[in-house]
Design brief:
Layout lengths: L11 H19 L6 H10 L7 H17 L16 H13 L8 H11 L16 E2 L5 E2 L3 H11 L13 E2 L2 E2 L2 E4 L14 E4 L1 H9 L3 H11 L7
Antiparallel strand pairs: 1-2, 3-4, 5-6
Helix pairs in contact: 1-3, 1-4, 1-5, 3-4, 5-6, 7-8
GO molecular function: endonuclease activity
Protein name: HNH endonuclease
InterPro entries: HNH, HNH_nuc
């Protein structure tokens, strides 16, 4: 197998990107949902792993399986653990795994990955969320959000749009597609808490932002969804 550059040449950022993609696929697999390994490999090589070959990315995924196996954790069935993993690479993978927890994030991909993982089991308590989300330093405006809030709200909706009451219009990776919307927008100093978030179909979500009756429709959400609190 062509594994590209030597393992030692992989940067911390490259290993983190690999681990992030791997954990997203693992979360989907554990939910019984399908994912496309070849597509994920290609997306990585179009982005953070642009200097790597298809074979090198595949081998890195097998390295991650090896480390997870050694840690006594679940690993993706389709990525058979590699026989050998360099000490530096294993150390980097372990550090990336340790840092990829369920902390709030401003990065959409990271937030969604953590929310998917959290949706695998029921919540014992309603997440506290973030009262005053902070802007993250970026070329665009982004707010740090809590993946527990996103996961809990989608669980609570059970595949039904909380705006129109209709089932999600389609599924993605086997799950109903609903978008989590902050009733009082974060840009208006709204909180990232379950009392300010609803799960909406794409149509209702756009209606909240762009329709002529968006203000009236938003007010109606407070009547439909009893957990919501005006801020």
């Amino acid at each position: 197998m062509d594994i590209g550059k030597k393992n030692e040449d992989w940067s911390e950022a490259e290993i983190k990107a690999s681990v992030g993609a791997y954990l997203t696929m693992l979360a989907l697999e554990q939910k019984g949902q399908k994912f496309n390994k070849a597509l994920e490999n290609r997306l990585l090589r179009q982005g953070p792993l642009a200097d790597r070959t298809e074979g090198s990315v595949e081998f890195r995924m097998r390295n991650i399986s090896t480390v997870l196996q050694r840690m006594g954790r679940n690993w993706i069935v389709g990525y058979k653990p590699a026989t050998n993993v360099g000490a530096n690479v294993e150390r980097g993978i372990r550090e990336a795994l340790a840092s990829d927890d369920f902390e709030p994030s401003a990065d959409e991909d990271t937030l969604e990955r953590r929310a998917i993982a959290l949706e695998q089991k029921p919540f014992e308590n309603t997440p506290k969320g973030i009262l005053k989300p902070k802007q993250a330093v970026s070329s665009r405006v982004a707010y740090i959000r809590d993946p527990e809030v996103r996961a809990w709200v989608r669980q609570e909706a059970k595949g039904i749009c909380e705006g129109c009451g209709q089932p999600a219009p389609f599924e993605t990776d086997g799950s109903p597609f609903l978008e989590v919307h902050h009733v009082k927008h974060l840009a208006q100093k709204g909180s990232d808490r379950t009392s300010n978030a609803v799960a909406l179909c794409p149509n209702c979500h756009r209606r909240c932002h762009h329709s002529n009756d968006r203000e009236v429709f938003t007010l109606e959400l407070y009547t439909r969804v009893k957990r919501l609190e005006r801020e």
